[in-house]
Structures are given as C-alpha cells and as structure tokens.
Amino acid sequence: MAALCGVLAGALGLGVAELIAGLVPGAPSPVLSIGALLISLQPPNAKQFVVDLFGTADKAVLSVAVVIGALVLSAAIGLLARRSLVAGRVAFGGLGLFALLAAVLDPLFDPVLAMVTAAVAIAVSAWSLGWLLRLATPRSGQGAQMMDFERRRFLGAAVGVGAAAVTSGLIGRTLLNQRASAAAEVPPIPSAQATAAPLPAGAELAVDGITPLVVPNGSFYRIDTSLLTPRLDAASWSLSVSGMVDRPFTIDYEELLAMPLVEQYVTIACVSNKVGGDLVGNALWRGVRLRDVLDRAGVQAGATQVVGRSFDGWTAGFPTAWLDVAEREALVAVAMNGDPLPPEHGYPARLIVPGLFGYVSATKWLTNIELTTLEAFNGYWVPLGWAKEAPILTQSRIDVPGSGASLGAGEQPVAGVAWAPDRGVAKVEVQADEGEWAAAELSTPISDATWVQWVYRWDAPAGDHTLRVRATDGSGEVQTATVTEPAPDGARGYHTISVRVG
Predict the structure, then answer these.
(1) How many Cβ atoms from other residues are within 10 Å of residue 406's Cβ?
(2) Per-residue pLDDT at 134
(3) What is the pTM assigned to this prediction?
C-alpha cells in the first residue's frame, strides 16, 4: 500500500509538471530534461546499442524508460515514507531537485520556469503522498485491518489520483508535441543563384518498392541527441565564425540569406546505419557555400579542423583538408527539397558536407563554426568511441524484394540503391546463391555526391535462394565483403537477403 501511495504521488507530480510544460512555453518537461541529461552522460558504445535495438524510436523508448524509472523511485519513496513521512517528502524534494538540475542544463528551457515547475511538482508529490498514506492507514491504528468503507475510500482516491496523473501527463505531452510540430513563421528562402540541374533522363527507375531517388522531407531519417525538436527563432538566431581566423564575425539569418545561395543534391548517411539499413537519404539542399563563409573569415594557415556547434553545445568536427577538393561543395544549408529547412532537420541552418558521415559533419541547429586544429578538439561522439575521421563507405542495399519474400518463378526485379559520396557509383553487381556476380542496370547519376538506383532482372528458379549485392565506386574500389559493426567508422559487408521462389 505504501509503495502504491508513492507511485501515485510521484505520478501526479510528474503529470502536473508535464502539464505545466505543455501550457507554458519555456517550462521544462522533467521527462525530456532528464532524458537529455542521460544522453549527455551515456557511456561509449551506448549509441549503437540503442539504435540497433530501437532504431529511430530510440527517443520514445528513452522517454518511457525515464517515466518507469521515476515511478520505481517513487515506489521506494512510498516505502520510506511508511516509516517517516518527512523522509519521504524530503526524498521527493531530492527527486525534484535532480529534475531541476537536468532542466537548468538544457538550453531549451527557462531556468526560472524550471524552478517554479520543480517547486510545484515537489509540493504536489509531497502533499499527495501524505494524504494517500493517511487514507491507507486504518483509523484504528497502524497494523490494523482496513474497514470496507476505508478500503473503498482509499481505492476511490487512488483511482482519482491515478486518472489525474495520466490525464495531466498526456495533455501536457500532447501540447508539447503540438508546439514542437506547429508551423512557425518562416522567412521565405531566396532562390539559388546556382540552381541544381534538372534530373537527367533515366535518373529514376520504374521499379515498385524501390527507395525514391529524392527522399521527401517527412520520410527522411533523423538521428540526433535532441528529445524535443528545437524550434529556434530565426529573428534572434545568429551564426558566428571564430577560432583560427583573421576576421571573426557574426551574421544573422537575414544576412546569411543575402549571401549567394547554391543548390545541390547530396546523399548523407548516419554512421550507425547497419548494412542494408535505412539511416541514409538523398535530398536537394540549398544554402551558402561553406567556402564563402570561411573565406570571409580568413582561415589561418595552421587551422586543420572545422568544428560546427549546435545551439545546445553539440559539436562535430572534420579536417579542413576535406574541403580542398573542389567537387566537395559543403553548404551552410537553409532549405531542403525546395522548402525551408524543417525544424527536425536543423532549422534555421545546418552543415551539409558531401562524403562524410553526419556525426563528424552534419551539425543541425548551427550557431557557431570554429576553426581549430585536429589535435586541439574532439567532437561530441569521438570521446565515446567513434572515429575522428569518417568518410562514408561504399555501400549498397536491396529494397526489392524484401527479405523472406515469396516470389513467382521467372523474371523478377532485384532492385535498390547504392552510394559512395563523393566518389560516385560505377557499378552494382548481384549474386544469387553462390553463382557469378552479374552487373545490374544503374540509373543515370545526378552527381558523384548522390546515390543511384539499380535493378537486376533475375531469372528466378524455384526453391530457396540467397541474394547479395555489392557496389564499386568511382575510384574503382569494390565494396568489401568483410563484415564489421558500425562502430567506430561505419558498417561493412554485403547486404544479403533470403527469398523463396515457388
């Protein structure tokens, strides 16, 4: 009974805090702020473990885990309060202070509102704990049996508190999600001075089920450390360039949009992507050439690393030498597939660097670019066990048919995508069982910075079969058969599926 009282009191305090967060912009969600703190404290290799288990649902799972953890602690506080109500209330105060600390460390939330929210949540939990424990204690004294009317009174109160906790929490989270997804007033993005060429004939293959050549914004993968989509205000946003430069400067959004804009298709990928995974996508990006930004600052001769910083301090760094190749046109991107950059993909601005995994290059919600040396600084993921330099590997994937599919005998399309930014894809081959590798038909490439679609017309005989795919990039390097995990610098191996032909 005491443990149940603790759970109900903790749930009510948590639900009220979530409701305040949903009603008052800037007030913290304890679930989100504690989750963000846990992400910042994660041990090495935790990222890949979580992505392997939950994929892009990792944020939802973490939120549920935070709620469960809070309720377990609340149950323990209820047991403590059975012996000393003061001790139980102090314990709830400690839990609230921990949530306050997490909120203060999160730049999404206002510190004053965080203190108010924590105070209200602690007060609600402490009061309801005492009230529920009194109802759970028989009037005839500790250890006595509850009378039927006392039991009904307690159960009624417990159901009411539980309903209030769930309702307030759900309303708060719904309001938070609505605010995170609400369409904000976004200034129009000027047209590019250098537009991308129209897609060439044959750039897309007519195969049912194949991944689109250009992935729509709503379907584009998202992997980052932010539990709640940041919605930065373009009117107050600015980008600074600092470090080893001759002319440090800061520009606002309007000034950034006034610089010459260019468009290009670029395929980007997450280093956590398993062989055959979908944490990769191709889009049309519009933005300012990173070279133009760096030229304005005047990069000093000793600078060997470009570091991008997000609004919350998240960092990614890559060698300045990566930009020495003219075809690698890195962008401070402001638009995606013709629309202003969506908030979940980094609005107002992000970095897009062809050929590099996102964890070392693709800083979202960009607020600072620093020039430094490779030895002087490590980006966010490097101390957690990921490689400091991370070019995207040559990879390919089978989209059609799906693994385990049942097919009819005769000609069947085997199709998918292959990528090797910024080297391009020269050839894709398919192997059925242990037979010879056969060349697939490739779509017309947009550029070396993008993936291609491919299709192989397979004469499928009856029986169970294994299909594999491999790509050869523009430099002549063949995708390796050696299997590796994503850590520390990307997964390797052939995407392999099994099918049955009847």
Answers:
(1) 9
(2) 92
(3) 0.87
